[in-house]
Amino acid sequence: MKIDLPKVAADFPPRNFYDLVNEEDPTLEMCSITHSVFENEVLHRVRLSNVVLKNCRFNHTDFGRTDFTDVCFENCDLSNVNLSKSSIHRVEFKNCKLVGANLTESSFGNVRFDNSLLNLAAFGNSKLEKVIFQDVSLKSTDFYDCKLKNVEFQLCNLDGANFEHTSLKGIDISSSTFDKLTVSIEDLNGCKVSTNQAVQFATLMGLIVKD
What we know:
Elements: E1 27-34, E2 47-54, E3 67-74, E4 87-94, E5 107-114, E6 127-134, E7 147-154, H1 195-204
Parallel strand pairs: 1-2, 2-3, 3-4, 4-5, 5-6, 6-7
């Protein structure tokens, strides 16, 4: 599946994330931010557009109702960040940590998570369209009551993930791994799985599979 990549340039001028703190309309555009530490802060309705962020830390920061468009995060730590009720479009997360991140009630479009950690992250009640999870750890991640359209899980760890009330119709998880998964039988209808995963689901349903 092809998705639209962030529209960013290699030669954006540098800015500091703290430039946003005292702005009435916290917006950063057409810039790059490196080695910024913005932890345990509260800054709502942030707007980032055409921004590259590298080696930054945003642990435990509250970014509720944020708008990210054409943004690339690389080697960033967003563990336990609050991004609930946000709009995240044409965004890439490369080699990032979003462990325990709150991404609930958000809209994701043309987003790629690559080689990242999203264990215990919460996507509940979000809409994901054209989203690729590539080589991502999603252990105990919560996708409760999400709308998934053109979403791919490639070589991911889905162990303990929760897809309750989320239809997996047309979703391919065949290259990913898990020991257990929370999902209802009806929501598995149309999900693309490997032979081994089919046996796993049958076992979870209480069936006894004989060769």
